[in-house]
Amino acid sequence: MITSTPPTRQEFVDHHVASARPLVVRQGLKTWNSAPPWNFETLVSQVGAQRVPLYGSLFDFIGLSTFRNYHDRFLTSATPAEPPAYLRWYTRQSEARLPWADDAFDALAGSWHAPEWLPTDGYIFPAYGGQADVVRQSFPAKGIFVCGRGGMTRWHVDPWRSDAYLCQVIGHKRIVLYRPGTAAPRDPEALGSVIDTPHAVPPGWPAEPLVDVILAPGDCIYIPQNQPHAAVALSPSLSITWNFVHRANDTGYRELVASAADDATLRYFSAPVARMDVA
């Protein structure tokens, strides 16, 4: 569903989360204190010296940079001279020593907020018992995603049987979703599954996807669990994104927890009350 009229919070839970229905809200971020599009140069002045992790087209770690150096290398030209690395900068997701984005989110906290129709309670992943605030608290896969034109994420299914929410802040990004079961995971217990590249519909898939949309600055998309999807930046792009499991639809999540106790992110967010505050 694509709309310019946001749902109420109850409508979102009942008609989208509970039934795993995607949702695109055009200009749903216009109430932010700093409404999109943001400015890369301003971000460089705020967080340019911070270290960021760089990835390939499917979460394969390829190195570190500063935000400023990444900007100068991949974002200053509309057509980069080289395929852009993908900057995926997460808040703390485990006890591992990585350049987490917590300080960057702290610096940006006054600029954005979760869309008004997202629930503030009822989350079981993260296991937060009270009111949840995605701006000030850590969520699974909560991150700042940045890439130059042509940066992509290949076909995949999100881990942890979780839903995802993405806010497009700078640039245009094409996102394509298929129905659950279009491509089965290689391993039924896999936390995420590689499907294919986004250049063409993989053999045997339906000709028509469930959703094929170009997000502009200010748009946002809800991607329910188990839906294969891919994304490509049509211009230098920045998105804010996070994952969650809500009690309205926890299909498969509890079984996953029982079978994948060694997953660092699952462990970290199983009882995160004491360590969720970012600010």
UniProtKB/TrEMBL annotation:
Per UniProt, residues of the JmjC domain are 114-261
Protein name according to UniProt: Cupin-like domain-containing protein
Q: Which organism is this protein's natural source?
A: Nocardia suismassiliense
